[in-house]
Amino acid sequence: xxxxxxxxxxxxxxxxxxxxxxxxxxxxxxxxxxxxxxxxxxxxxxxxxxxxxxxxxxxxxxxxxxxxxxxxxxxxxxxxxxxxxxxxxxxxxxxxxxxxxxxxxxxxxxxxxxxxxxxxxxxxxxxxxxxxxxxxxxxxxxxxxxxxxxxxxxxxxxxxxxxxxxxxxxxxxxxxxxxxxxxxxxxxxxxxxxxxxxxxxxxxxxxxxxxxxxxxxxxxxxxxxxxxxxxxxxxxxxxxxxxxxxxxxxxxxxxxxxxxxxxxxxxxxxxxxxxxxxxxxxxxxxxxxxxxxxxxxxxxxxxxxxxxxxxxxxxxxxxxxx
Length: 322
Known about the structure:
- It is a single chain.
- This protein is of the alpha/beta class.
- The protein is 42% helix and 11% strand.
- The protein contains 11 helices and 8 strands.
- Helix 1 (7-30) crosses helix 2 (47-54) and helix 1 (7-30) packs antiparallel against helix 10 (270-279).
- It is globular, with a radius of gyration of 19 Å.
- The termini are far apart.
- The mean pLDDT is 96.
C-alpha cells in the first residue's frame, strides 16, 4: 500500500478527500432550494478513487470523465468557485453556466470534459492517446467511467483499438455494481469484467476503491508498467454508492439493494477510512483545521456563485459548434 512521503502529502490527500465530500454535502443541503439548475450525480463513497487515480498522474496527463465527475474535477483543480457557479447556472461557471454538472471541464488542469452519455468519452480518450503517440509525446491519457459503460460497444472497440496500437491509456472503471438500479448480474453475459479484459494486450488490476492509499499504489504500479511496456492499462475499483443514482437523496427504501448497517457503511466510507489512518499518525487538530478551511472555502464559493449573473440571451448561440 502506498505510503505518503511526508506529512504535507498525507494532509494534502485528506484535503482533497474532504473537499469532495463537503462539496457533495453542500449540494445535498442546497438542492431543495431549486437554485441549482442541473441534475447531479453525487460522488459520496467514490472519493478514494477520484483522489487515488489523480494523485500521481504525470504532468500533461489528459483526463476524460463521465457524468459522475465531481470528484475528479475537484481532485485535479482544488477550486470551488467555477465549480459551484456552473451548478448554479452562472456565467462564472466552468462553461459559463450552460453545461451543468455532467460536463465539468478544466483543460488547464488536464480535465477535458465529462459527459452525460454513457461511454461517450472513452473513444475520445483513445483519440487523445493516439494523438499523443502520433506526436511522439511521452504522456498519459485517462478514461474514467462507471461499470455500466462496459456493456457499451464504445468501450470494447476503444479497448481493442488502444491495445492494437499500444497506447498509453489508463482505463478506470469505477465499479459500484449498479447501472442506475440494475445489478451487474442482471446486465452481463459474463461473470467478471477483469476476467474478460485479461484477454486483451493490456495491464490489469482490480481492487478496493474505498482505500485511497490502495488506489494510489495501484495506479502508480500501472503507470510504471505502461512506462516499461507501452500498452494500455485497465483498473477496476469497487466502491459503494451512498446516494441515489441521480439526485441528492438516498434510496435504500426502493428495495433494489439492502441498506448496509452503520458499521458496514463506515467500513465502505473512503473519507472515514483515511481519517482513521491519519489519526494513528497525526493529531486530530490538524485534521479539523483542514476540514474547517475547506468548509469556509465552499461557503464562500456558494455565496459568490449566487451573486453571479445567469447567461443572457446574447450567449445562447455562443460556444455551439454543431
